[in-house]
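Morning, I've got a small favour to ask if you have a moment. It would help a lot if you went through both lines with me. Thanks so much in advance, here it is.

***
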Amino acid sequence: MKTVIIVYSTILLGILGLTSGLFLAFAASKFAVKEDPRVKLVEAALPGINCGACGFPGCSGFAKAYADGKVPKEGCIPGRRSGVPEKLEAITKTSQEKILAIWKESGEDAEKALQKLLSATGAPPKPVPKKPVRPSPDEVAKYKGMLKDNELASLIYGALPNIDCGLCGHPGCAAFALKLAASEEKPEKCVPGMRQNVPEKVAKIKKMSSNEIKKMLEETAGDPKKIKEKLGG
């Protein structure tokens, strides 16, 4: 008798488990939040460096905002030189039905879908500049160490975004700060910094006396956040 009960209990539990599994699979399929192909195409058209110059924490944030019509096609500052506005315009002018068709034909691969869409609309992309490579932690540490002997560069470093995106062409913000201090670079090359008034801040720092620079570094303990507050922003 006990054996029969155990067998029936096992079968019942198996049936319940199978039923629950099927229900969960159905629910996952029925209520799944599908990705918007248009957003994925916009994101594929962006540089993908997450520099924050657009005002969003990353390219995915900008892509969603653009797809929702909240930002202009020129909003991606680094992308202006690589044909991003033209790519975004091509995406915008393409109907949702066409985008869905291309998305499926491309196996839901955003890069392939984007190229197919651009070819179909007669708007081939401009040659894209080589994507900047983020410096390695060792490179960043190396140049940060060099700031210790350069108070002007240290203060300039505090005025920069400090995200080490590499867009300026140098291995990190510390390396760029050293170049700025030596007047070997222009602050306008800091693309993310354009929204943060970096050129104006650097100009302000360079007008300061050595004593003023030293005083600000002491008052802020070299903290970039505090330096930005002192400089106004």
